[in-house]
Specification:
The chain is of the alpha/beta class and 502 residues long. The protein is 32% helix and 26% strand. The chain has 17 helices and 24 strands. The strands form 6 sheets. It has a 6-stranded mixed beta sheet with strand order 6-9-10-3-11-12, with helices on both faces. It has a 6-stranded mixed beta sheet with strand order 18-21-22-15-23-24, sandwiched between helices. Helix 4 packs across helix 5. The longest helix has 16 residues. The radius of gyration is 23 Å and the shape is globular.
């Protein structure tokens, strides 16, 4: 229940990094028991504000009160001890430990100097049930989980302590509708217990389901704080980007798919009993829907040679391909943009130039040596054509916003002159303005005759952007839906079809 008492008061918060003012005199108050939505484009200052609150960033100036008392955490652990916990988009899990050990890693229950595993598994099971991980054992190794399940482990980990303020950064980015409903129900229960939630999301429709207050940041400055009930999506978008976006999901009627580009026959992976067949046309954006764990990502990885292909044949322009490794796929013009761009898509410590040209070094080499001028010209062309916002092509990719990182990822495969682009969650963790630019880039690729496969947990996104949607359920394609027949109920029914069989 929302009270009038402020649990957090941030006054004139300023944060300066070398050459950059990340936060500029921001004022923000969080009430006890409220869900406070924090919005802004990538680079607006949301992460900087959160990291200041949880002890990662040190204030340049300003002050914070927590429960009416001065608050200045020196480390993230200090913030946790005081009751402030954050669940980041980038997970902080130990892959070779179990779910239970990750949840209670900071305070493993002990008995006679040894870990009390009975108590550990019992208490972990209670938390796992709360967040919707009931299908898994507490002893399951985290490395075997998908991204969505790891997200839920992080939330369970955050709930294991006595948090008074819980910060959730894009918690629904990889969740399907049923999983999102479970999370929102959990948030309602936490609110009733007096826990305050700071909620960061680029899915603007979520604001009106759970939000009490909304704060918008732009270029490190506070734009406004309003009651959620006083806002609508157009007004929020205008505050965020400083302009209006007419169509959230652009669909280009002039781009008409032509002949078959890619054909998949009886593909299965890692011993799965299901064999899936589908085709992709030139100039087509084919959506892939399904619950997390339905086999959609694994099928794309098998197509790319990243996972073991148990059976099946792959044809590109009518020619049968023998794809056993990602190198084979890349050499044949097929690229995969993974859902975890930071871990698997980019080399963050490398700069924009190095990440852009790494897929096609022969084009920027002379007599076996890299040609710096060729690299520079090629990268500047990609930065210009894709509207990548970076102070320099020498800027480390690590320091770019999520949207610009995604553009770098697309650019490196464009530079390779790929024919088939497989996008797994291409707009995950990207703000509304950057999403729109990514959609336009997809259409640019389609207009060039490239084939696009788009895997997404965001059903409205798939319905807004794609020509056609193939639906996975428990490892099997249960149907394909043409654009004229797009309907949420139909697609969700196909998503659950195999799971509902007795």
């Amino acid at each position: 229940m929302v009270t009038e008492k402020n649990i957090i008061e941030m006054n004139e918060i300023t944060l300066v990094f070398p050459g950059v003012k990340a936060l500029d005199a921001v004022n923000l108050s969080i009430k006890e028991g409220e869900v406070h939505i924090l919005l802004g484009e990538n680079g607006a200052g949301k992460s900087s504000l959160v990291k200041t609150l949880c002890g990662v960033n040190k204030l340049s100036s300003g002050s914070i009160l927590f429960n009416g008392k001065p608050y200045n955490p020196r480390t993230p652990l200090d913030a946790i001890k005081q009751g402030v916990r954050v669940v980041y988009q980038e997970f902080n899990l130990l892959p070779y430990l179990s779910i239970a050990e990750n949840i209670f890693f900071e305070r493993l229950p002990q008995r006679a100097g040894f870990v009390d595993y009975k108590k550990l598994f019992r208490e972990s099971r209670e938390l796992m049930n709360r967040v919707g991980l009931n299908k898994f054992s507490p002893q399951t190794l985290v490395e075997t989980l998908g991204v969505a399940q790891m997200q839920l482990v992080e939330i369970a980990k955050a709930l294991s302590g006595k948090s008074r303020v819980l910060i959730l950064d894009e918690p629904t980015a990889t969740l399907m509708p049923g999983e999102i409903d479970n999370l929102f129900e959990l948030i309602s229960k936490l609110k009733a217990q007096g826990v305050s939630i700071i909620y960061i999301s680029h899915r603007l429709n979520e604001i009106f389901r759970i939000g009490d207050s909304v704060t918008v940041l732009r270029n490190g400055k506070l734009v406004a704080t309003n009651k959620a009930s006083d806002l609508d999506i157009p007004s929020i978008v205008k505050m965020m980007v400083g302009r209006t976006i007419e169509n959230e999901y652009p669909f280009d009627e002039s781009v008409v798919p032509s002949e078959t580009l890619l054909k998949i026959d009886d593909l299965s992976f890692n011993g799965s009993p299901h064999r899936n067949s589908f085709a992709l046309k030139k100039g087509e954006i084919l959506g892939i829907a399904g619950l997390v764990g339905s086999g959609r990502t694994e099928t794309m990885r098998a197509l790319f040679g990243a996972d073991v292909k148990s059976s099946g044949e792959i044809f590109l322009n009518g020619t049968r391909l023998d794809i056993k490794t990602p190198r084979d796929a890349v050499n044949n013009g097929i690229c995969l943009l993974t859902e975890d761009r930071k871990e698997q898509g980019l080399i963050l410590e490398m700069n924009c130039l190095e990440n852009t040209t790494i897929t096609n070094l022969k084009e920027v080499s002379r007599w076996g040596f890299l040609d710096g001028q060729k690299e520079k010209v090629a990268t500047e062309k990609q930065v210009r054509e894709m509207n990548i916002k970076t102070p320099s092509i020498q800027q480390k990719t690590l320091h770019l916003s999520g949207g610009n990182q995604q553009k770098i990822l697309i650019g490196k495969w464009l530079y390779r002159d790929s024919e088939v682009f497989i996008f797994d969650e291409p707009t995950r963790g990207i703000d509304v303005g950057a999403k729109y630019e990514i959609y336009l880039l997809l259409w640019k690729l389609a207009a060039m005759g490239r084939g696009i496969i788009m895997v997404s947990s965001d059903l409205p996104e798939l319905m807004g952007v794609c020509h056609r949607i193939a639906v996975f359920s428990d490892g099997k394609i249960t149907g394909e839906v043409e654009r004229a027949d797009f309907d949420p109920e139909t697609i969700l029914s196909l998503s659950y079809k195999e799971y509902l069989k007795s």
